[in-house]
Design goal:
The complex is a heterotrimer of chains A (about 290), B (about 400) and C (about 325).
Chain A lengths: L1 H25 L8 H19 L3 H30 L3 H27 L12 E4 L2 E4 H23 L1 H11 L1 H6 L4 H23 L10 H15 L4 H22 L4 H15 L11
Helix pairs in contact in A: 1-5, 1-8, 1-9, 1-10, 2-3, 2-4, 2-8, 2-9, 3-4, 3-8, 5-6, 5-8, 6-8, 9-10, 9-11, 10-11
Chain B lengths: L1 H25 L3 E7 L6 H7 L1 H13 L3 E3 L2 E3 L1 E7 L4 H13 L5 E2 L5 H14 L3 E3 L7 H7 L3 E3 L4 H17 L6 E7 L2 H16 L3 E8 L7 H9 L4 E5 L2 H14 L5 E4 L6 H7 L6 E4 L7 H14 L7 H19 L4 H10 L2 E3 L2 E3 L11 E7 L2 E7 L16
Parallel strand pairs in B: 1-4, 1-5, 6-7, 8-9, 8-10, 10-11, 11-12
Antiparallel strand pairs in B: 2-3, 12-15, 13-14, 15-16
Helix pairs in contact in B: 3-12, 4-5, 7-8, 9-10, 13-14
Chain C lengths: L4 H17 L8 H27 L6 H15 L5 H23 L4 H26 L4 E2 L6 H24 L1 H11 L1 H6 L4 H27 L1 E2 L1 H4 L2 H14 L6 H19 L4 H15 L3 H23 L1
Antiparallel strand pairs in C: 1-2
The chains are: A mainly alpha (about 290), B alpha/beta (about 400), C mainly alpha (about 325).
Chain lengths: ~290, ~400, ~325
Amino acid sequence: MDILITGIVLGGTYALIAMGLNLQYGVARIMNLANGEMLVAGGFAAFWLYTGAQVSPILAIFLVAPVTFVLNWLIYKIMLRPLVKRAKTRGQLEADSILATFGLAFVLVGLMIWAFGGDYFSYSYLSRPVEIFGSNFGLNRVVAFICAVVICGLLYLWLNHSRAGMAIRAISVSPSSSGLVGIDVPRLSAIAFALGGAVTAMGGALISTFLTLDASTGVLFTMKALIIVIMGGVGDVRGTIIAALILGIGETMVASFIDPGLTLAAAYLLFILILLFRPEGLFGRRLT
Amino acid sequence: MLRRHLLKLSMAVAVAGSFVAGTAFASDPIKVGAVAPKTGPLAGGAAVTHWPNIQLWVREVNDRGGLNVGGEQRMLELIEYDDQTNPQETIKAVQRLATQDNAEIILAPYSTGLNLAAAPIFHRLGYPQITSTTTTDNAADLSSKFDTLFFTLGTNSGITGDAAKVFSDLREQGVIGNKVAMVNVADAFGIELMASAKPAFEEAGFEIVYETSYPLGTQDLSPIMKAAKAANPDAFVAWSYPPDTLGLTEQAMIEDLQVGAFYTAVATAFPLYIGKFGDAAEGVLGIGGVNTESESFKDYAARHKEVTGQDPDYWASGMMYATLQILEQSIETTGTLDRPTLIKHIKETTFDTVMGPMKFDENNSNPSFWTVGQWQGGKFKGVASTGREGVVPVVKKEGWK
Amino acid sequence: MRFSGDDWRHIAIAVVLIAIAALLPFGGNAYYLSLGVNIAMYTALATSWALFSGPTHYISLATAAFFGIGTYVTGIGIETTPYPMLLVLAALAGAAVAALVGLATLRLSGIYFVIFTLGLAEMVRQIVTWWQNQAGSKGTYVLTNLTEADIYWQLLGLCAIVWATGWLIGRSRLGFALRIIGDDETVASHSGINTALVKVALFMVSGSVAAVVGAMIAPRYVYIEPASAFTPMLSFQVVIMALLGGTGRLWGPLVGVIPFTLLWEVISSSFPNQTTLLLGVCFLIIVYLLPKGFVGLLQKIRMRASGESARDEALA
């Protein structure tokens, strides 16, 4: 039982890491390799606010979100829009965006090192145990999980029950057709990208309560996020959530029953199997 | 009459002044090259142990007027490079320092892997490579191939052997039983320590009731801690890296793991550790340790804090600074920067450093190093060493406050 | 296969250039030699990468996985097996893993393949370290008498082999099939070309070359650790260099490797504290200004030049 809960809580963490990327790739078609760095930046902000001004990371989210929203919006408009305009095929945009965001990742790491130095940073927030069904769990992880549920839930509701959300979902299905029905694709893509970045940074702020980060750890998170987004199928929030949960529970089961040393191998195996039987991911659409 | 005296006096002063001014401006600075990670996976560790010591040393030497090289005072000019935790970059940077920058001193890089990758080129160019962040059991082979390579931080077998001894002592005192849970991070250092520790602990009569390895960067260590707790161990040992050292300690607190001895490896000795856990860190064992009563170390720590703004760590920081002192003393004693002369001097001399006296054995290795430390009263005191003075008794871990 | 007069000319030029390159260690400057080793290494990696990714337009980020496998083959076998045998073993290991991966990922389209290959290095790394852990490894040391010059010549030789292979493939039926696949995959498969087999075969070539490069570089590392053997950075650097040069031509990647390596060196040496930041800025500049790489730039210049001369003729 506690394996299940641990797995679900871990899945929540993973969902936080991957949700933003799903928005950025699914809608704006940008395979953002700087995703992990945005996460670490959110973590840095939370660390700085907590150790400097005693601001709880939960509250810090409300400061981090708007700032990173604007930052990502600017990144899209200035850096990525020219690539979108230039790309003649979807494949070319993906290739270009991989390279461009890789460069962006370097830039962000460089900026963070310049601003904060290369040290590890870690702080203790809510690192008390909480008992659920007879087993102990870290309160900080559980709180992060609850926040993840709230954030993902809000996103899902917004995407599925608002006009803007519907427009965004339309773009993720087919940008060209969406343009034909009067959806302002460039504007909404920028908003989706910005929103994705903000969600990632919020996730980073929450994760920093229980993980040790430094300026160079972004790349680990990017890889996890990429696996989850692809596994879940691009463009659908549900896919990311389900994939994150599957991954969280799967890894925990492997760690508990088989060998913690094989968790990533198992995650990868899961990834391969899902893609073998459903090459477009769990909830993805077959590309025409 | 008075005027003539004054004239002579002022002329004498002027001549003397020009002598002083002459010597102060006549010497070129000594170019000192340093290459280590500023980005990449090891940047966090280098930022604590490596770069601050270099900053401290250069500042202090220059405040004194520079190094005295055969009567000439020469200031130090530091040239830094970031090798991005990539051995190929380390090699290139050392090459660059030697041939393009004409560095007369090149400081040893950071970490076992990067130092060993640079060893052939240090050897070919003949620069002394006095490492402070390299641990290896292969000093004999390595130093016979690269006689410019020196080791100060010790051996893996020393670390694990002494850990087994400390735990045996605790068992003899009745503090712990003989059941140990032992885990390791699946990276080179963790794997090697585990490979060396398992037989050491088993030989000491311990039963390993739970063992596993986990990948570097594992985000959730709670399954491991839960499984370890379920095996009912008397003691817990983790051959871990900074992120998991912190993670496992936090998990132990959450699970309220009741063991008489709790040991995590790298970063237990970092200021970051006590900063995060405070009183709960009391009694935690780790690699390293220092003689906290040693005046020279206390003085060094104070200066470190003053110049760099951060505390030194209690494992390799002091060793790193000691290697810089060894270089400095060798240069000033032999009066030259000639590398073969320096190397010969380094091999033969006992040096007086912040860590105490240091002499290299026939394998270019320092045989006396700190192996196990314990947080006692907010200080990471050395409880076991292979020959350092100032060992204090080890105490029981009394729960998690 | 018959070679035309043009072909012999090309072969002669290539041989002369390679012979000149082989003289580098005799120049006496160890710094340039170490740069040369880097350039030779990346050229071998980038060219073999382009052999696969150029025609198929699949961006593979698996280079680090194969490279790592190669370094470990040397690392583990150096005490017991003769060195040349290690290179052969590495090539076979790389080809085998590439075959497995290739067959497993055939049905994946573009981006899925990219992400899959990115994670591959991590997964292989985990498996290798897990196995090392089980075996109780006491450190993987590679102590040999190979000098920088030896490593340089080996890599240069490997580059020559890769170029020869690429050149021969281009002139063979396989190359013909590749061009059709590149133009229109549906047509290719309808014409009876086994597109799947072709792709896997090429992937095997690039995988085994990357593994051999890793095996050759292992002596330079002296101490093999998973982090430096399987660094994901390597995969990205290879991709960027190949794309910078352009994958349309066999010599494209070389034209990308050299300026990129030199640029990297200039930035690392001049800006030690902002290395990462400036490298990122340079990547961005490259992506924005040179979408088709130097090869593309060259083609544009040539087209403009011939366009102008055609116009001049028309006006005359």
